[in-house]
Design goal:
The complex is a heterotrimer of chains A (about 260), B (about 250) and C (about 350). With about 260 residues, chain A is mainly α. Chain A is built from 13 helices and no strands. Classes of the chains: A mainly alpha (about 260), B alpha/beta (about 250), C alpha+beta (about 350).
Chain lengths: ~260, ~250, ~350
């Protein structure tokens, strides 16, 4: 496995890193109640949580893409006063503890929230305690991953192709659709995968904002957390399911989702 | 002087479990207590330290079930005050705890935001679909208790969320995001003017007794027992009563 | 017909030039790197707005800061062949050529059919489905040209069209490009730093140095009377600066005086001397030559069947002699030799 001229100190350090990540998973597998696994995994709570997690992760990624890609374009290609402040703002959900994010979402979109209050009073619609709340929380914490990845991809892309397209008579929308986005496709995929993965694992903001109810807001991470307190075997089973699903998505993508 | 670590179950650091047995420094008592005991035990801890200056009381709060798991995983606690017997008994069976002593009692109340926007008058209202109702998660004692109470009263609650612990539930009620919840009377008191409590009729309610037990891994068993004695003393009982707890 | 007066402020460089390109003409902007040629082309393409001046194509004003008129690039009837061709990497050659047609509103089938016709006209039919990365330099250039011409522009702009090619390919492609350019009947403007490109492809040259036009004319005119050191070097003519010191004498900066045959055009002049007009002698020459001096050989360079002799001294020039003369005169580094040039072989013009 050694390539030519690898500094000798690199291999043991890399091995330590691999071991550090692998060991907890190995321990998890070792504690797995294999004989009982079938029964545990077929409980309705598992199916509910899994469906919820996957659906909301995809929904959040979709929303993040629709509004996040334009934002990435604005950050990468335009100049306006306060641009670095905007970028710092976008980075905040990545840095804040998710629970803080959830609390802030509550203050903004809850029934008595800044925006949520008037919406509830006039339409009776409320985000918390519904699947939309989960999607909202997921989008909040995961969108920055997509935005920043796509922004760096757009920056690195050669803007001269857009010049060429303009000389051929393409409108700005056509250029965006046929040149900019396809050229940025690798970073969009990478950003989308990061966003999806983050949304799938989201816990703090979801439970604080959307609450916890099987079938409606109880995502996999939440189910695992609660199961740990009462039924450890169920918790392990849930964890394995989540790991399996994640691998099923990440492995086929192989290197394609690494930006660049 | 009291340093109390309030840990909600959502952020309970399981890293404590990796520390191994409870090797505290001399003069430190680590008490794991149910979330609903937070304010009461803060003051009990303060009072105990005032009377025993050489001792430092460190408190760690969480859902009783979560704390039980941490202790089983080897968290370095000297004492465990649980919101129900079952959690402690499991520790006794596992050989990590001495026999517990009951030190307080609690009962449930319906909690509503100040002003009672949902117009809630009793348990029956918890079945109304149009209201936003929250309970503790089933795995937590207050959740188990609440469901038991509702079941016995023949009411199917229109639950919108089962919060992982009581503090999370109260936060949502205080904020007005929930119209009603079912929590301990002590919790209602602790939330002050942000919420109102509605008593349940005696026949609908269930009394919970709180046991406290000395853990076998305690560094200083005598100091732990002394703390239990304090809790059971007249002064301790008075402090508990001031927070809404009944005698056991 | 393109009529352009271009003023652009580029930080260190200020670009100010005027040019016209008629339909049926190929004009080359020729100049050293950094002279502002590409900027001028980008301004005409609309990729950069003018700071002053005016661009008019076929009577339509494309850019006029004074009246705040600016036609965006996409709406200008132009075609551009970029230096690196900029073929869209994920599209096939056919789709590249069809791109402009689709952008102009043709439906997909029509656009593809038309694109195919263009590719066949350039002998690229077999490569229609190839990705740009698999094409050779010459093929890519033809696709880029086809792509630019497919939308039937009124003005074709080419930015260093042969720069991306290696020397061997450049020769052949240059000839082909001349042929293809001839089939287009609109105005054609190309930008290059390579004088051979300009001389082969263009009907007229516009020399741009440091943001300004220093000379314009047909290749023959420019070669015959270079107006700047750059152009003179380009066409291989010696150029010396001097001041009029009499009706027909010029004093060079070195102090040496040269006698010319024609009347001087002004007080400050440039004197052009063809390398072939300089004669070298072992002894001081007599005869009709009025201009003689002692020179020192600084360098010798073989150039096919001639030798170019770099001479230092009061008249720093390059002379061109036969190899036999080199041997006979025993020319070698630091050797001293007499040089002379006839007055009639000196051309002067105003500086």
């Amino acid at each position: 496995m050694t390539q030519a001229r690898t500094p000798w100190v690199i291999v043991p350090l890399a091995a330590i890193a691999i071991a550090y990540i692998a060991l907890p998973f190995a321990a998890l597998l070792q504690r797995t109640p294999w004989s009982d696994l079938g029964r545990l995994v077929s409980q309705p709570v598992v199916a509910d949580a899994l469906w919820l997690s996957i659906t909301t992760a995809f929904a959040a990624t979709g929303i993040a893409a629709v509004v996040g890609i334009p934002l990435a374009w604005v950050l990468a290609r335009t100049r306006f006063p306060g641009r670095s402040a905007v970028r710092a703002l976008i980075t905040l959900p990545m840095v804040l503890p998710p629970v803080v994010g959830g609390a802030a979402l509550l203050f903004a979109f809850g029934r008595r929230g800044l925006l949520g209050g008037p919406v509830f009073d006039s339409t009776g619609f409320v985000l918390p305690f519904s699947i939309w709340g989960v999607i909202a929380a997921n989008t909040f914490v995961a969108m920055p991953f997509l935005v920043l990845t796509v922004e760096s991809g757009l920056r690195a892309a050669d803007a001269r192709y857009e010049d060429a397209a303009a000389t051929l008579g393409a409108s700005r929308w056509t250029i965006f659709r046929r040149i900019t986005i396809p050229n940025a496709a690798p970073s969009i995929i990478a950003g989308g995968v990061l966003c999806w993965a983050r949304a799938l694992g989201e816990f703090g903001a979801t439970v604080t904002f959307a609450g916890n109810l099987q079938g409606r807001t109880q995502t996999m991470p939440l189910a695992v957390f609660l199961a740990l307190e009462s039924d450890r075997d169920a918790a392990i089973a849930l964890s394995l399911v989540l790991i399996a699903v994640s691998l099923a998505v990440l492995v086929p993508l192989r290197d394609r989702w690494l930006a660049g | 002087m009291l340093r109390s670590i309030r840990t909600l179950a959502v952020t309970a650091p399981l890293v404590l479990a990796a520390c191994g047995g409870g090797q505290d420094r001399d003069g430190t008592l680590t008490v794991f207590a149910a979330a609903s005991l937070t304010d009461a035990f803060d003051e009990l801890g303060d009072a105990y330290e005032a009377a025993n200056p050489e001792v430092e009381v460190t408190l760690s709060y969480g859902a009783s079930s979560s704390l039980r798991e941490q202790i089983l995983s080897g968290a370095p606690a000297d004492l465990f005050a649980s919101a129900n017997r079952a959690n402690v008994e499991e520790l006794v069976d596992a050989g990590v705890s001495e026999e517990p002593v009951d030190f307080a009692a609690n009962e449930l109340q319906v909690v509503v935001p100040a002003g009672n926007p949902g117009g809630v008058t009793g348990l029956a209202d918890l079945g109304r679909d149009e209201l936003f109702i929250g309970l503790c998660a089933e795995e937590a004692p207050c959740g188990e208790l609440a469901r038991m109470v509702l079941d016995r009263a023949g009411i199917t609650p229109a639950i919108d969320t089962s919060e992982p612990d009581v503090r999370a539930l109260l936060t949502k009620v205080e904020a007005g995001e929930l119209d009603a919840g079912l929590v301990y009377r002590t919790d209602v008191l602790a939330s002050g003017s942000a919420v109102e409590g509605i008593d349940l009729p005696f026949e609908q309610n269930v009394i919970t007794t709180y046991p406290i037990a000395v853990l076998r891994g305690a560094a200083d068993g005598d100091a732990a027992v002394a703390f239990v004695d304090f809790v059971l003393s007249a002064e301790g009982a008075a402090i508990l009563a001031s927070f809404g707890f009944d005698a056991p | 017909m393109l009529i352009a007066s271009i003023e652009v402020h580029l930080g260190a460089l200020d670009l100010a030039l005027e040019l016209e390109v008629g339909d049926g003409e190929v004009v080359a902007i020729l100049g050293p790197n950094g002279a502002g040629k590409t900027t001028a082309l980008r301004a005409i393409a609309g990729l950069r707005a003018l700071d002053g001046g005016r661009i008019v194509l076929d009577g339509t004003v494309l850019d006029d800061p004074a009246t705040s008129t600016f036609v965006p690039t996409a709406q200008r009837p132009i075609g551009v062949v970029f230096q690196d061709y900029l073929l869209f990497p994920r599209l096939s050659a056919l789709d590249n050529v069809a791109f402009g047609l689709l952008a102009h509103g043709r439906d997909k089938a029509e656009a593809k059919a038309e694109a195919m016709r263009w590719l066949e006209r350039f002998d690229l039919g077999a490569h229609a489905d190839a990705r740009p990365a698999t094409l050779s330099g010459g093929q890519a250039q033809r696709v880029a040209l086809a792509r630019a011409l497919a939308t039937e522009p009124r003005l074709l702009l080419l930015d260093e069209p042969l720069a991306a090619l290696d020397a061997a390919t450049r020769l052949q492609v240059r000839t082909e490009l001349r042929r293809h350019l001839a089939t287009f009947d609109g105005a054609r403007l190309l930008v290059t730093h390579d004088p051979v490109d300009a001389l082969v492809l263009a009907d007229r040259l516009v020399i741009v140095e440091a943001g300004h036009v220093t000379q314009a004319g047909t290749p023959a005119e420019v070669a015959a009377r270079p107006a700047s050191r750059y152009v003179a070097q380009l066409v291989g003519i010696n150029l010396l600066h001097g001041a009029a010191s009499g009706a027909r004498t010029v004093q060079l900066t070195s102090g040496m005086e040269l006698t010319v045959a024609d009347a001087l055009p002004g007080p400050l002049v440039a004197v052009a001397i063809r390398p072939q007009a300089i004669a070298l002698h072992r002894d001081q020459p007599g005869g009709s030559a009025r201009n003689t001096w002692v020179a020192t050989v600084v360098g010798l360079e073989a150039d096919r069947d001639r030798v170019r002799v770099d001479l230092g001294g009061p008249v720093p020039v390059i002379a061109e002699v036969t190899p036999a003369a080199v041997a006979e005169l025993r020319l070698e580094a630091d050797a001293e030799v007499w040089a002379s040039v006839k007055a009639v072989d000196l051309t002067t013009y105003e500086r």
